[in-house]
Write a structure and sequence with these properties.
The protein is mainly beta and about 625 residues long. The chain contains 4 helices and 36 strands. Helix content is about 5%, strand content about 50%. It has a 22-stranded antiparallel β-barrel. Strands 1-4 form a two-stranded antiparallel sheet.
Length: about 625
């Protein structure tokens, strides 16, 4: 399915500028030797091939946003996490799910998984290696290593390894007392036949994400010796509890051009997700959980001992999609049939929670020229689910409309664990969403006023008792916003985004979104020392108005509503210095620059979890092309 919206096209515009007319400039030096570099190692995504919008993108060597290396910061803080790299995270704003059928419902570590549809496929003229190492204050470390090469001019392969080692920011007991340990890797290949009629894309991805849960800081009203902003000396609820999310995906896309302008294609996916949670209830960790225990009557089973929580959920999925697509002049068309089958298994289930789904779908796109585009797409989940999307793109206005009826997650409908159990038969969730963006160009500066309107009914959420519930009425959201980029003297930039959220309707209280959400960055960007070094130096700030942010329950790995802890408004300022020498980029970022200058001693990102204290981060990124 197509996924082109206003935000995606903004990213595409930036990529177009990077590629440009001279994407192959500099391939030859004065001695006519091939010079390898970012413009000889190009990449593309599967959606470019599938949507017949094929293009190749140069590797990113820009400095803009480079200092925001963590996944949450890279979204410009549109996710709510637990205050540390790699911790559970949820989107701040509601959006329509891409998958209208069954999903596992264990999504808090999605941000750290490089899923099959996000893999970059390469067309490289030489072996290419990328190493990015980030050393955050407090031992919050991340390492990405990627290697790709061409076996033949029409056949490329690649492999990548990614890891996170993040020490606890709250009450670490030793240097390597890690909060998060993540090991991920991916293998990918792409091949096209010499005549260009057949193309194959394939990848394998795996992530093992381990978290030593802490449960947040013990409130002072529970323990008078507990204080909120002592960080390393904080008193936390959990010391003997851990969670793991293991994911493994196999993906294959292939297409064949039957006649010019008409291709048949096939997509295969096999996925599994194993979610576990362990807690030693003979320790003080038991005080964090509810008093209910749902142990099996067979006490000989390891996972049913009364002094231990050992929850386990296993989700698996198989998918096959067959379709055809093509171009008739300026019109692109696509039609497909998709079959999904899968299950959720648990040690506590008497029978697996299985599903089988059949979809019909298609898309149309018309392009008057590269600036005027009309798109429509639809998917029907037989017999009671659908997603319809219409998109209009112009030089002045982008408008997108989505109407969907999608299924609750498997975790919301049936769950068995040592602390919670439920069986639900929820109705499908309905949504209408309108998004519009006005594009105003002011010389080198730009303004993007925008508006999102949502109508959501039958919404399923985790309530104050930490169990799923379906809202009996509707919620209406009106979210006006403004994105701006002012350029002053060609080297000074001021980039901002702001959103105001108004929620009404009977289910308004089931959505916890800050009324005001603001990000802003002001910086100098330009070359120094006879253009031997490129520099970005500036300040970045973010602000969310106060709200009762959802809290987090590690046992079920779900965020839930709460009405007692106000995550109060607090502006956070960071200073950054990014520079590039040749193809090497370096970042310095000083977090929470304004610590100690505010009325409060710090800030919260989630009830019981404080944001970062003031600390220095360092990162470096290298590209090698031989």
């Amino acid at each position: 399915m197509l996924a082109w919206g206003p935000a995606a096209f903004a990213q595409q515009d930036q990529q177009d500028q990077q590629e440009g007319e001279g994407s192959r400039r500099g391939l030859l030096d004065d001695s006519t030797k091939m010079v390898y570099g970012p413009n000889t190692s190009l990449y593309f995504y599967e959606k470019f091939v599938r949507n017949n919008r094929f293009k190749k993108i140069e590797l990113d060597t820009s400095l803009t946003g480079f200092h925001n290396y963590e996944p949450v910061a890279d979204t410009w803080y549109k996710y709510q996490d637990l205050g540390n790299l790699g911790t559970a995270a949820r989107p701040v704003f509601y959006d329509v799910p891409q998958q209208i059928g069954r999903t596992s419902g264990f999504e808090v570590y999605d941000l750290y998984h490089n899923s099959a549809d996000s893999i970059r496929y390469f067309d490289t003229k030489s072996p290419h290696t990328h190493i990015a190492a980030f050393f955050g204050g407090g031992n919050r470390n991340q390492l990405d290593v990627e290697f790709v090469r061409n076996i033949r001019p029409n056949w490329n392969v690649g492999i990548a390894y990614r890891t996170i080692r993040a020490r606890k920011t709250l009450n670490p007991t030793r240097r390597d007392d890690n909060n998060v340990v993540n090991d991920s890797y991916e293998i990918h290949t792409n091949y096209s036949s010499p005549n260009g009629k057949y193309r194959l894309l394939a990848n394998f991805t795996r992530m093992e994400h381990n978290v030593n849960e802490q449960g947040g800081i013990i409130p002072p009203e529970v323990d008078t010796t507990s204080l909120y902003f002592t960080y390393e000396d904080s008193k936390v609820w959990l010391r003997n509890s851990r969670a793991k999310d293991l994911r493994q995906e196999y993906h294959l896309y292939q297409q064949y051009e039957i006649v010019k302008g008409w291709q048949a294609y096939h997509v295969f996916d096999k996925k599994k997700q194993e979610v576990t949670f362990f807690s030693n209830l003979e320790t003080s960790d038991a005080d964090f959980f509810n008093e209910n225990r749902f142990n099996s009557s067979d006490s000989s089973l390891l996972f049913s001992k009364p002094d231990t929580t050992n929850n386990h959920n296993h989700f698996s999925e198989w998918k096959n999609e067959f379709g055809f697509k093509g171009d008739l002049g300026p019109v692109y068309y696509n039609a497909y049939l998709k079959f999904r089958t899968g299950r959720m298994a648990s040690r506590f289930f008497s029978t697996n929670n299985s599903f089988t789904e059949l979809y019909l779908g298609g898309a149309l796109r018309g392009e008057i020229n590269e600036n005027w585009v009309f798109e429509a797409e639809g998917e029907y989940l037989i017999p009671d689910g659908y997603r319809l999307t219409g998109l209009f793109i112009s030089p002045y206005l982008d408008v997108r409309y989505t109407k969907a009826l999608y299924k609750p997650t498997l975790a919301q409908e049936k769950y068995r664990g040592n602390h919670y159990r439920w069986d639900n038969n929820f109705s499908n969730i309905g949504v209408d969403q309108i998004q519009g963006t006005i594009k105003v160009k002011l010389g080198e500066s730009s303004l993007r006023p925008n508006l999102t309107i949502n109508r959501i009914n039958n919404y399923v959420f985790y309530n104050e008792e930490q169990v799923p519930e379906q809202a009996a009425s509707q919620a209406f959201m009106v979210i006006p916003g403004l994105n701006s980029h002012f350029v002053i003297g060609k080297k000074f930039h001021w980039v901002s985004e702001a959103r105001y959220t108004l929620i009404t309707g009977g289910a308004a209280d089931k959505f916890r979104i800050p009324e005001l959400f603001i990000n802003s960055r002001i910086y100098f960007d330009g070359p120094l020392f006879d253009e031997n070094i490129y520099v970005q130096i500036g300040l970045e700030g973010r602000y969310r108005s106060d709200y009762y942010a959802p809290a987090y329950m590690p046992a079920t790995q779900q965020f839930y509503l709460q009405n007692d802890f106000n995550v109060y408004a607090y502006p956070v300022a960071d200073a950054f210095f990014n520079f590039r020498i040749n193809r090497t980029r370096v970042l310095f970022r000083y977090n929470h620059l304004n610590a100690g200058f505010m009325e409060n001693d710090g800030y919260f990102v989630t009830p019981g979890y404080t944001g970062l204290k003031n600390m220095l981060d360092l990162g470096i990124s290298w590209y090698f092309f031989d």
